[in-house]
Amino acid sequence: MKKLATLLLAGAVVVMYSCGPSAKEKEAKRIADSTRVADSITKVQMEQKRIADSIAKVQEEKRKMDSIAHADSIKKHLIKPPKAPKPPKKVAPKPVKHTKKGPK
């Protein structure tokens, strides 16, 4: 009876082991998973680029609108136009006094 139970147990182990996926199936699953991950990463990168482009476009539009509003304010005399930068003053070099120092 013990031998029969051992034989049945060994047979069950063999059957359970043989039911698992083969090496070919494991490799196919690994490739499918890596492809899925790569596709997901590509989608995320494309979405990040789209968002960055959208933000840049909004900032450019805001810059244009601010510039138009500033020019309009100057035109309506709500603000003073910016002063032209003054050219730097030319400073004449100071004359160098040569003194003769000698023993006293």
Secondary structure blueprint with pairings:
Layout: H1 2-18, H2 23-75
The best one-word shape is: elongated
Counting DSSP H or I runs of 4 or more residues, the number of helices is 2
The assigned structural class equals mainly alpha
Ends apart, CA distance between termini? 131 Å
User: Which percent range describes the beta-strand content?
Assistant: under 5%
Q: Tell me the total number of β-strands.
A: 0
The low-confidence runs, each spanning 5 or more residues with pLDDT under 50, are none
Order of helices and strands: HH
Level of helix content? 55-70%
Mean pLDDT: 86
Largest sheet: none
Radius of gyration over all CA atoms, rounded: 42 Å
Description:
The protein is mainly α. The protein has a domain of 38 residues. Helices cover 67% and strands 0% of the residues. It has two helices and no strands. The protein is elongated. The mean pLDDT is 86.
At a glance:
This protein is 67% helix and 0% strand.
Features:
single chain; 104 residues; mainly alpha
